[in-house]
Amino acid sequence: MMLKKQTAYPLYAQIADQLRLNIQTEKWAEGQRIPTEMELCEHYHVSRITIRKAIGDLVRENLLYRKRAIGTFVKEMAPNKDEYATIIKGFTQELQEQGKNATTVFAEVEHSHADPKVAKFLNIKVGEEIFILKRVRGDGKDVFVYFKTYLSYKKEYSLKSKDYYGSFYDYLRTLGIVANQEREYIEAIPATRELQKLLKVKETDPILKRVRFTSQKSKNFFEYTECYYVGSKYRYYLDFGI
Fold first, then answer.
1. Could you tell me the domains of the chain?
2. What is the pLDDT of residues 114-152, one digit of tens each?
3. Could you say which of 19, 98, 133, 206 would form a disulfide bridge with 149 (CB–CB 3.0 to 4.6 Å)?
4. In 3-state terms, what secondary structure has residue 235?
5. Per-residue model confidence (pLDDT) at position 89
6. Coiled-coil stretches, from where to where (predicted)?
7. What are phi and psi of 55, to 5 degrees?
8. Would the CA dihedral through 138, 88, 179, 123 be positive or negative?
9. CA distances (Å), 213 to each of 8, 39, 155, 224, in order?
């Protein structure tokens, strides 16, 4: 991915985003040593200071750790990873916990083929059949999120848009699929023309982009979803145990 040098978004932050994606998509495995600072300098054509700032961000996020005189490594997650289950909360459940009802104002299903990016995320080959689900959702009063979900194609998936106006994860459960692993990252982006039209926002309105990866490896199920929230109408909560 090329860096955008004519932008207010710092180079080190752009590089950190790309390194973070390598971890989240498991291009870099847990415990793996990442390329050296000099190798990354040569790859991105930037200074060593820029690379150090990018890596420093991921160290603070607990995604990477350094070993003196050895290198920088991907942080290992919980032991017995394949048996570790994370509770996956969908949009419907998130709103229910806030005392609100989730609604869908638009749903569209598409049968397509995987490009290199999507193929990597879904653990399939380029050109294989995929299922794309696009939905615009809200709480009955406001419309504030657009979901674009990619799945490897299965004949069990309905191609009727009307079947996706409720909870997507509830629908998957009817097929015996329960996603039990999840990784996400969040970033702020400007509203594209597509988002302006779908979410009825202005170009200057802030958009919160939330990218989600889920899987159930025993079912060979992988999901990649891009979520776009209207920043002024949505808050993302994280709970931490102390």
1. 11-74 (1.10.10.10), 81-233 (3.40.1410.10)
2. 998 899 889 899 999 999 999 998 887 888 899 999 999
3. 133
4. coil
5. 62
6. none
7. -65, -40
8. positive
9. 28, 28, 21, 5
